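Dear H.,

Thanks for agreeing to be a second pair of eyes. The structure we're designing against is below in token form, covering all 126 positions.
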């Protein structure tokens, strides 16, 4: 669960700053749902708590943040790996055949993407 700390609106996208209710760690989640045309996350409000699935855009790097791969999971039509960081927060990243469940990977995170909120899935994953 994540609390929305702030929302930064841009012309066609927005950043939603969320705080994990588990670890109190904050993340900037990129929301591009308006570009798809249905803006299904427009209901999100500051100071409210939501069940969010955050995707990771990044690359494997030996100096990156450590994540433990928990499982394979489907979000919309996307086959993803569910992973947790050292704070215990859960994230989703593209599934690759060479990554095993239970293994650890190091990632340089470039961006967090808003994939789903309260079981509403971002249209780009459908």
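And this is the sequence the design step returned. I haven't edited it by hand at all.
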């Amino acid at each position: 669960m994540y609390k929305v700390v702030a929302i930064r609106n841009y012309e066609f996208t927005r950043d939603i700053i969320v705080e994990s209710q588990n670890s109190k760690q904050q993340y900037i989640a990129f929301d591009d749902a308006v570009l798809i045309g249905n803006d299904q996350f427009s209901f999100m409000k500051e100071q409210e708590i939501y069940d969010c699935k955050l995707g990771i855009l990044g690359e494997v790097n030996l100096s990156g943040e450590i994540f433990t791969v928990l499982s394979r999971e489907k979000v919309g039509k996307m086959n993803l790996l569910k992973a947790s960081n050292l704070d215990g927060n859960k994230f989703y990243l593209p599934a690759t055949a060479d990554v095993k469940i239970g293994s650890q990977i190091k990632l340089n995170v470039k961006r967090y993407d808003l994939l789903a909120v309260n079981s509403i899935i971002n249209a780009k994953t459908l």
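Two observations from my side: The first strand starts at residue 2 and ends at 9. The first helix runs from residue 33 to 36.

Warmly,
E.
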